[in-house]
Structure formats: structure tokens, C-alpha cells
Specification:
By secondary structure, the protein is α/β, with parallel strands linked by helices. Helix content is 33%, strand content 16%. It folds into three domains: 113 residues, Fumarate Reductase Iron-sulfur Protein, Chain B, domain 2; 158 residues, FAD/NAD(P)-binding domain, CATH 3.50.50; 115 residues, FAD/NAD(P)-binding domain. The strands form five sheets. A five-stranded parallel β-sheet has the order 3-2-1-4-16. It binds flavin-adenine dinucleotide and iron/sulfur cluster (SF4). The site of flavin-adenine dinucleotide has 41 residues, from helix 9, helix 14, helix 16, helix 17 and helix 18.
């Protein structure tokens, strides 16, 4: 029998991940982190204590059986590990790379109380990448149910909903406004963090399930949600259009040439391939001295993209301190290694012009941290008389995004006071048969949360359409029943008798 592991018997050091040299990678778009090989993965898997209470699972927004998949990695059963992961997570290669694990599963890991936590994300990526390399696809036996489902938006929320509805036997059509599917994974997150071939391979898996993609289709302008239900033959629709409408600061100089949103910079660079100009016909404003405002993941991406596009100096301006930066810890660390200059506790007050409509610099004020605000974080307050100017020829705002108003303007969807789609607990909207999830419901969140919402909406959609959900028991233990039929089963019973 295998000896029980303890905190003292496991490898004490977290297995490092090989990375491209910072100076070299700061000038190319190749992936920064190289991933584990089999030996590295086995060593790291050996650090998992397989705790009976499994606190890491509670830290994962979709509740992946983390010890279950790590145990299979340790047994070298990688296909088994992949099956465990994909029972809950459609995109292990993606989530292993971009989830903020330090605040999620790894933040709860028992090992982390004494040593560095088990590198759960890196192991997840290792299994996901092995599956992509080996071409593993879990295509179940699919029995058609003669239901047609429309998905609006092809980000992680839409992809997850599409996969579950296709597996349930529905005809699924995904409409995407851009010319390629993938949402933020494709247009926002750059290749050096999440290579496009990884996303393309995941989208191919959806195609293998029978999901159809119709790109260059802006729903709300070409046709409305109501038309999808009433005229286009859809029995149900999922809206996962994200929250990509950028915020501007509203300070003097906002409209000068050379001020743009991070989403515009990233979309031009990544999806429109502006970084390969002139081979691709997308103009991209190239700054020599770039200032990016914000310190979330989007800001880190804009900073590091600017460096790779050839800027001499790239500054990050953030009004709070490093400890409050919302970006993944690894991204801030990588940005620092690459030579980004961070100006913590600094707030812009004006973008300065050159008198001909172009940006020439920025005026900022130093900040100090005051009392905690509603978010629990200490409120930054300006330090009187601390204004200073510095030179910049490109200013990029990465201070958050909002809901795009198109869906609300063109349909009868009920919105909340912030303009996001209002849903009930099961993600049903105010229009019968229309469900919504991801950033368009919660506001900007994370990939795994959007994916979890897509799956939750799919469960509600199946109940609405009267499709049996294999994951749902006929009757929960102790659930009251009438004539042997549990309350949540009545809908199915009626459909099957009809
Ligand atoms: P999205 O991914 O935004 O996808 C929505 C899709 O709907 C888009 O493709 C859009 O073109 C399409 N669409 C919009 N309107 C219409 C319409 N009317 N008709 C048809 N299609 C439409 N999260 C992390 O967990 N880790 C990270 O490291 C991370 N980094 C990020 C970096 C950047 C630059 C950004 C912007 C976000 C990042 N996030 C990260 C957040 C994460 O990407 C989002 O929370 C997630 O993608 C939301 O998924 P979604 O499916 O709701 O929407
Ligand atoms: Fe393994 Fe950490 Fe989860 Fe315990 S908490 S089962 S050590 S990953």
C-alpha cells in the first residue's frame, strides 16, 4: 500500500515552469510560459496531499474535481485526467493559462498553508495541452431532439452553452459579430499569454459536436432576438455578448489623437493582426512613449503588447498600490520583468496636447490610501500639490468596460440599472426562451465564471425545452414528489406525454 503523504514528505518546492527570457520575449509575440513536460507534471502532481476535505474544489468557480484529476496525472493516466477535467471544464488549456488561480483553487490549497500551493493551473494546462496534441475529443453519443438553439456571442459563455446544448441533441448555431469566434480569448488576450491555435483547437472541438458558427453577424442589427424566436425557428436563445464597451476617463484631453481604449488596441493587434502590418491591412497607432491607465489583466495586456510593438518606454499608471492591482499576480510579475515602469498611487488628471490635436504627455497627481470604500479596498485620495507632467505620445485607457447597449436597444430584454441583462437565478431573461450569462449579466468577470454561466444557462434551457439532463437525477434524495414525480420533473413528464 502506498505510504500516506504528509506536508514533510512531498517535494517542498513548487516545480518551476520554464519561460522565455524576459528581454527576448519583450520583443516577440511567442508564448511566455512554456508549460510542464511529463516529468515536471509528475513531480508537481506528487505535491498534492489528496486531502479528504478537498478545499481546493470549493475555490474553483465550477467545482472541478481537482484531487481527482491530479491523482490521475500522478498515475500517468492522462486521458483519465482529461475526462475528469472536462466533466466540468470545457476549456482546460485556456483556464490553466488564464484563471487567477491564486484567488481561486490555489488560494484554498492545504499545501499553501505551509509551502507554495500545488500548481493546479499548470497541471490543468499540461493535461489540456496533451489532449490538444493527441487530438482527444469527448464526443458522446448524441441523440437528436429536434430543437434549435441560437447562441449570440462566441466567448467562453457562449461556447460552454453551445457545447452542452449540442451534446443534448439540439441543432446549435452560434452568431458572432467579429469575423472569427472566440470572444475575448481571441480578440483581447494576446498570443504570448494564450496562443490562438489553442482557442482554434477548442472551437474545432465544438464543430466536432455539430455546433455551427456564423461570423460577421451582429445580432440586434441584422435581426433581433424576438425575430430569432418568432421567425427563424429557434426554440431557445442564449445571449453571451460580453461587456466590451470601453470606459473613458472623462478628463480634459480625452479626445486627442493618440488616446484610445485598451480593447481597441488589443483588437487591432490580436484579431485584426495589426502587429503584422503591412502584411495585414490594419493600421495600429505605434507609440514610442506609451502610458496605460489601469492595472487589471486588460491593462497588463495593453502594456506588454505596446512593448512588443516597439515602444521605447511603457508606463503603467494606477491610482492604488501594487497590492490592490486586480491583474493576475503572474501577469504583473511578468510585466515587471519585461521592463514596464509602474507608477503606483498615481492618477491622471489631464492628457496634454501638442497644440495640433495630438497627445504630447500626461499630467498626473500622486495618491495616498484612505479609508476602505464599498469594495473593501482602501480609497485612493489625491495628495495636494503633487501634480507632475511626463511625456507620452500614446495613452491607453484600461479602466474597465460596460455592457454594449445594442441588445437592450433592439429587444424587449429587461436590463438592470447598470445596463446589464437582468436574469433570474437560472439565468432566464424577461423574454420567454431567452437566457443570458457571462459578462453581459455580471459585468466584467473571468473566463471560468463566464464558462460556468454558459453551462448553468444550458441546464435551465434543457429544463425549459423538456430535454432530460443526464447530470440531473430523476429525484433528489428526500425531494417531495406527487404520484412519484418530483416537482422539477413535471415539465419533462408533460413534454414526453405530449
Ligand atoms: P466575451 O468573451 O466578451 O465574448 C462575447 C462575444 O460576443 C464577443 O466575441 C463579441 O464580439 C460577441 N458579440 C457582442 N455583441 C454581439 C452581437 N450583438 N451579436 C453577435 N455577437 C456579439 N479573465 C480571466 O479569467 N483571466 C484573464 O487573464 C483575463 N484576461 C483578460 C484580458 C482582456 C484584455 C480582457 C478584455 C478580459 C480578460 N479577462 C480575463 C476577462 C474574460 O476574458 C471575460 O470575463 C470573459 O471572456 C467573458 O466571457 P463572455 O463569453 O461573457 O464574453
Ligand atoms: Fe491537493 Fe491542494 Fe487540493 Fe489538498 S487542497 S487536494 S493538496 S490541490
Amino acid at each position: 500500500m502506498a505510504k500516506k503523504k504528509t506536508i514533510r514528505t512531498i517535494p517542498q518546492e513548487r516545480t518551476p515552469m520554464r519561460e522565455q527570457d524576459p528581454l527576448r520575449r519583450a520583443r516577440n509575440f511567442e508564448e511566455v510560459a512554456c508549460g510542464y513536460n511529463q516529468d515536471e507534471a509528475l513531480r508537481e502532481a506528487d505535491r498534492c496531499l489528496l486531502c479528504p476535505d478537498q478545499p481546493c474544489i470549493g475555490g474553483c468557480p465550477v467545482g472541478i474535481d481537482i484531487p481527482g484529476f491530479i491523482a490521475r496525472v500522478a498515475e500517468r493516466d492522462l486521458r483519465g485526467a482529461y475526462e475528469v477535467l472536462t466533466a466540468t471544464n470545457l476549456l482546460p488549456s485556456v483556464c490553466g493559462r488564464v484563471c487567477p488561480q491564486e484567488n481561486q483553487c490555489e488560494g484554498e490549497c492545504t499545501v499553501g498553508e505551509s509551502l507554495e500551493p500545488v500548481a493546479i493551473g499548470r497541471l490543468e494546462r499540461f493535461v489540456g495541452d496533451t489532449a490538444l496534441r493527441e487530438g482527444w475529443v469527448s464526443v458522446p453519443f448524441i441523440e437528436p431532439v429536434r430543437r434549435r438553439v441560437g447562441i449570440v456571442g462566441s466567448g467562453p459563455a457562449g461556447m460552454a452553452c453551445a457545447a452542452d446544448m449540442a451534446k443534448a441533441g439540439c441543432e446549435v448555431i452560434v452568431y458572432e459579430a467579429f469575423h472569427e469566434p472566440g470572444g475575448v480569448l481571441k480578440y483581447g488576450i494576446p498570443d504570448f499569454r494564450l496562443p490562438n491555435p489553442v482557442i482554434d483547437a477548442e472551437i474545432d472541438k465544438l464543430r466536432a459536436l455539430g455546433v455551427q458558427f456564423e461570423c460577421n453577424t451582429l445580432v440586434g442589427r441584422l435581426f433581433t432576438l424576438e425575430q430569432m424566436i418568432a421567425e427563424m425557428g429557434f426554440d431557445a436563445v442564449f445571449v453571451g455578448v460580453g461587456a466590451g464597451y470601453p470606459s473613458m476617463l472623462g478628463i480634459p484631453g480625452d479626445s486627442l489623437n493618440g488616446v484610445l481604449s485598451a480593447n481597441e488596441l488589443l483588437t487591432r493587434c490580436n484579431l485584426m493582426r495589426g502587429r503584422d502590418f503591412p502584411a495585414f491591412d490594419t493600421p495600429l497607432p505605434a507609440g514610442r512613449r506609451v502610458a496605460v491607465v489601469g492595472a487589471g489583466n486588460t491593462a497588463m495586456d495593453a502594456l506588454r503588447v505596446s512593448l512588443r510593438l516597439g515602444a521605447d518606454k511603457v508606463h503603467c499608471i494606477y491610482r492604488r498600490s501594487r497590492a490592490e492591482a486586480p491583474a493576475r499576480a503572474e501577469e504583473v510579475h511578468h510585466a515587471e520583468q519585461e521592463g514596464i515602469e509602474f507608477h503606483w498611487l498615481t492618477n491622471p488628471v489631464e492628457v496634454l496636447g501638442d497644440g495640433q490635436g495630438n497627445v504630447r504627455g500626461m499630467r498626473c497627481v500622486r495618491m495616498a490610501l484612505g479609508e476602505p470604500d464599498d469594495s473593501g479596498r482602501r480609497r485612493p485620495v489625491p495628495v495636494p500639490g503633487s501634480e507632475f507632467d511626463f511625456e507620452a505620445d500614446l495613452v491607453v485607457y484600461a479602466i474597465g468596460t460596460n455592457a454594449n447597449p445594442i441588445m437592450g436597444q433592439t429587444s424587449g430584454l429587461k436590463l438592470n440599472k447598470w445596463g446589464y441583462i437582468a436574469t433570474d437565478d437560472n439565468l432566464a431573461t424577461s423574454i420567454a426562451g431567452v437566457f443570458a450569462g457571462g459578462d453581459i449579466v455580471t459585468g466584467a468577470a473571468t473566463v471560468i465564471e463566464a464558462m460556468g454561466a454558459g453551462r448553468k444557462a444550458a441546464r435551465a434551457m434543457k429544463a425549459y425545452l423538456g430535454i432530460r439532463d443526464a447530470a440531473q437525477p430523476y429525484r433528489e434524495e428526500g425531494e417531495p414528489a406527487f404520484l412519484g414525480i418530483a416537482a422539477h420533473e413535471r415539465n419533462f413528464t408533460r413534454v414526453h406525454l405530449a
